[in-house]
Specification:
heterotrimer, A mainly alpha, B alpha+beta, C mainly alpha, A: mainly alpha, 2 domains, B: alpha+beta, Rossmann fold, OB fold (Dihydrolipoamide Acetyltransferase, E2P), 6-stranded mixed sheet, 24% helix
Chain lengths: 275, 354, 319
């Protein structure tokens, strides 16, 4: 029999921690809509009609680049997810389904990537990108991020593919489908849940990454939103309105996406790491 | 005295009534089996007795003590779970000693009790093993051992045999029966298998949709089922049921027009629609008995010395008759089935026995 | 059946060896290529680079382990290196001591049966993990800023106003403050991982413990906790790898110099600074690669130690 008192205590603790977790975010967003005086005068107050002000946002969006930064981030993240899923699924399929001599070795080779911190190879990556004439391009980022996320994607998708009943694949073969057809028309549709998981799993670190945009695409309008905000903040550091508005501009879309996809996201984290 | 008394127990999950007006007495030292189809509430009732589920109204006493508000540990019960629920990270000895450690029982006492239980259940060579190194049957014995060492007033078993294969199930059933006699324990046992219920119980409690349909000694339920549900649940293969109408002259007419003349008067009124029931094992072939059924043979299932014949009546209904030896029946042959009147059950329009 | 007919032993009847090979190449080559070129090759190239020392004339001379010797013993290099390494260790210890126990406690609470609003709590508490470190870092900078005064206000309401100081700007508190901010952001990850592991424990086991006389807290300590040790181990090693790889938060809050006075310098920022140069020094390919290789070695040692010493002893229980 659970005592109601202890449940109450648990809820109190959880609510307190939730407030701790959300408070800074709410504070920033709230104050981004206030005039400078109100930010300092009554920081905890909600914006009222008298204190409401969009002056910070004017500066953020006035600079037009913000929109292009968003587009850059969307392009890089979207392409990375696409390639990670497609190439990852293909490799996962071959490793799971087909027997060949180097199968185990290849699997191990790819598995190493999960633990290896790709950033440590940055020196050589930069050299490579420069040699390929891809500095300051989104392509460079896409290639690097795909390479970074392939191992885990292959790992997760392999587990899922292994669960497809063998009968299904054999029936398809009997029906006369070629191996390529089997992959594209039978396997891919069946692993959609796992792919959704991997997509969500990959999305966050790529979107939020600061390191590679800083190294590979720091100028020329090819910044991602994360880098862009970082640079903006550095530039307008004393302008509190602009700064708060910039932060909120970066926060709000992510928040909305998160609330929509939170269930898939958590499922993604759990399936990937429980192994 | 470790009698369990349950009085007008009710339990609801919100608007859904899961247990309704349960009145039950488990006498000291008796083996009571709660049986019924899935969802009938038998496990819920067991867990309520254990203290793992709260109840909405009613009272429960164990050994004279009211236990409604007591946590499981203070109810002096011990439970054997369907999946055994052994602690995977402890060896067999520790699994059995675990609860006693927390009750601050002195170490010598713990040792004595665990070794005694191990002796009874032949677990002595396994004491240092982990659960994953044991077979299903061995795990089950450890689960029982864990219950024994608590020296409870009542043992609660939640479908303990359902995870075992058929042969092991029969052996273990016998073991449990022997254990009951040896320990003189009060046992409440849940199962969906009516064979287990019939063979193990001193008292069977048949449950359906949260209510007790009938409780009593196994043979009472077998010979005098209180309603169609109990009649159809107990006994395998199930009882044959046929619709019929009562005639003024004390006869009963079946749907296909056959008439059965009854010698004993019944409470049934003339013109009433009733259901008659009889068990396959009470039928005889080519009957020279009081009552006769005419039908054609559809299928014969032979099991060796015994078999079951499925007969189709002219109304299209099928009845099952038990056959012994080689009766030389042919498919499609017209046959008579005989039944002694004492083996005929009559149920009214509500399904209750007359 | 001939080897040819079964596709070179693949078991696919009717596919010749040649087409089987093409099949494999089609499916495997893209992923393996991209991975090898952009992930594995650079790592080895970096290690390779670390064995060479850049000469004044721009060429590279093989130096064996000389760079490492310089890094670890030559004061110009070793002082910042050991400083960064020591800071990394503090960073890691704070995460182990604060982030993981809090994550464990939250997971334990969230996994209580019949807890209402469980999904809401989980979603909300995990939110900071979703945001980029740039946002987190800067937001906290504002909140902790003496100019805005919010944190001072809060401390004053609980009577601890005297504790307030510009922690981020002070040498002896900068690292701890940044560490705690990082903990605040990433608590969600151990929380979710441990929560999932706790969910896998069958409820019947806890029922058995209840019947055995344990209260909720004791059941957690003696039954649940031992059964999730593998997950706790995983969380620890992930924390280790992530902490010793860290860069973003410190860079976002303190820039490449990781001040004040390098008090927040960790190996990631040291690497960045060394490789790209800054107002204090020119970029140095050789030493940059050396630092990167050192980081790799340290992480590798940590992971190996974990795998061989700890992981082996742990029992994974399946239910």
């Amino acid at each position: 029999m659970r005592k109601p008192a202890s449940t109450f205590v648990v809820h109190v603790i959880l609510i307190l921690y939730t407030i701790l977790a959300l408070f800074p975010i709410i504070l920033v967003i709230m104050n981004s809509f206030k005039a400078r005086k109100a930010i300092f005068g009554s920081p905890l107050a909600l914006p009222t009609p008298s204190t409401f002000s969009l002056i910070g946002y004017d500066k953020v969006f006035g600079d037009n680049s913000i929109v292009s930064y968003y587009i850059n981030s969307i392009t890089v993240t979207g392409s990375t997810i696409f390639f990670t899923l497609l190439l990852g699924a293909m490799a996962a399929w071959a490793l799971t389904e087909y027997k060949f001599r180097w199968n185990a070795l290849l699997t191990l080779f790819l598995a190493i990537g999960i633990m290896v911190p790709i950033r440590l190879g940055s020196v050589a990556i930069i050299q490579l990108i420069v040699q390929m004439n891809l500095i300051n391009t989104l392509t460079a980022l896409i290639l690097v991020y795909t390479a970074q996320n392939l191992p885990l994607s292959i790992f997760i998708l392999s587990e899922f593919i292994a669960q497809i009943p063998k009968d299904l694949r054999e029936a398809a073969r009997c029906d006369g489908l070629s191996e390529y057809n089997i992959f594209f028309f039978i396997v891919l549709p069946l692993i959609r849940p796992a792919m959704a998981t991997v997509a969500v799993f990959t999305m966050i670190p790529v979107w939020n990454d600061l390191w590679f945009p800083l190294l590979l695409a720091p100028t020329g309008g090819k910044q991602t939103i994360t880098l862009g905000i970082q640079q903006f903040l550095g530039q307008y550091i004393t302008d509190w309105n602009a700064v708060l508005a910039a932060l909120s501009t970066a926060i709000i879309p992510v928040l909305i996406l998160y609330i929509i996809f939170s269930r898939q996201l958590i499922r993604g984290l759990t399936s990937g790491a429980v192994k | 005295m470790s009698e369990v008394k349950i009085d007008k127990l009710c339990k609801s999950y919100g608007p859904v009534e899961v247990l309704r007006d349960i009145d039950l007495t488990v006498e000291d030292g008796s083996f009571v089996v709660l049986v019924g189809p899935s969802g009938c509430g038998k496990s819920t009732l067991l867990r309520s007795i254990a203290g793992l589920e709260p109840v909405s109204s009613g009272s429960m006493t164990i050994g004279g003590k009211t236990v409604n508000d007591l946590p499981p540990a203070q109810r002096e019960i011990a439970m054997v779970f369907q999946s055994y629920a052994l602690y995977p990270h402890m060896d067999v000895y520790s699994n059995m000693a675990f609860g006693l450690k927390f009750a601050r029982t002195p170490k010598a006492e713990i040792d004595a009790r665990v070794n005694e239980a191990a002796r009874i259940l032949q677990l002595e060579p396994l004491l240092k093993r982990r659960p994953r190194e044991l077979s299903g049957g061995q795990r089950q014995r450890v689960a029982i051992g864990r219950a024994i060492v608590r020296k409870p007033q009542v043992f609660l078993f939640d479908e303990p045999l359902s995870n075992l294969d058929a042969a092991l199930r029969i052996n273990t059933r016998v073991e449990i029966a022997k254990l009951h006699k040896m320990l003189k324990a009060t046992i409440v046992y849940v199962t969906h298998d009516q064979v287990e219920a019939m063979t193990l119980a001193d008292k069977i409690v048949v449950m359906n949709k949260g209510r007790i349909e009938q409780s009593g000694e196994p043979l009472d339920l077998y010979y005098k089922p209180a309603n169609i549900f109990v009649a159809g649940f107990i006994g395998s293969p199930a009882m044959n049921f046929l619709g019929a109408t009562v005639k003024k002259n004390g006869a009963v007419t079946l749907v296909d027009g056959q008439e059965l003349k009854l010698k004993t008067p019944t409470a049934a009124k003339a013109g009433q629609n009733i259901t008659i029931g009889f068990r396959p094992e009470h039928t005889t072939l080519h009957g020279n008995k009081d009552l006769k059924f005419k039908g054609t043979v559809d299928i014969i299932e032979r099991l060796g010395e015994m078999g079951f014949a499925h007969l189709r009546l002219s109304s299209g209904q099928t009845i099952i008759a038990e056959v012994r030896g080689d009766p030389g029946m042919d498919i499609g042959a017209a046959t008579n089935i005989g039944l002694a009147e004492e083996h005929l059950h009559l149920f009214d329009g509500n399904g209750n026995r007359f | 059946m001939s080897d040819q007919a079964t596709g070179g032993g693949s078991g696919i009847i009717g596919m010749g060896r040649g087409s089987y090979l093409w099949l494999l190449v089609f499916f495997l080559a893209p992923a393996v290529l991209i991975y090898s070129i952009f992930s594995i090759y650079p790592l080895f190239a970096t290690i390779f680079n670390s064995l060479y020392l850049r000469q004044p004339d721009g060429s590279y001379l093989f130096n064996g382990l000389g760079n490492f010797h310089t890094l670890l013993t030559d004061t110009t290099w070793s002082a910042p290196f050991w400083n960064a390494f020591r800071n990394n260790c503090y960073f890691f210890l704070i995460h182990m001591a604060v982030q993981n126990p809090i994550g464990l406690a939250l997971a334990a609470m969230l996994s209580l049966p019949r807890l209402r609003l469980r999904a809401a709590y989980r979603t909300l508490i995990f939110m900071p993990t979703m945001l980029s470190v740039v946002i987190i870092g800067f937001s906290w900078q504002l909140i902790l800023s003496p100019l805005w005064g919010i944190s001072k206000m809060f401390l004053q309401t609980v009577g601890l106003g005297f504790l307030f100081a510009p922690w981020l700007g002070q040498e002896n508190t900068a690292l701890i403050t940044i560490s705690l901010i990082s903990v605040w952001q990433f608590v969600g990850i151990p929380m979710i991982l441990i929560y999932t592991a706790l969910l896998a424990i069958p409820e019947e086991l806890i029922d058995a413990a209840t019947v055995d006389g344990l209260n909720q807290f004791q059941a957690f300590l003696w039954v649940k906790l031992p059964l999730i040790l593998p997950t706790i181990g995983l969380v620890s090693i992930l924390t280790f790898v992530n902490n010793f790889n860290a860069f973003d938060l410190i860079y976002a809050m303190k820039g490449a110099l990781a001040g004040p006075n390098f008090s927040a310098d960790i190996m990631g920022t040291l690497f960045y600074r060394t490789f790209f140069g800054n107002q204090l020094q020119l970029g140095d390919l050789s030493m940059g690669s050396t630092i990167a290789t050192m980081m790799f070695v340290i992480i590798l040692i940590g992971v190996m130690a974990y795998l061989f010493l700890i992981q082996r002893r742990m029992q994974r229980y399946s239910f």
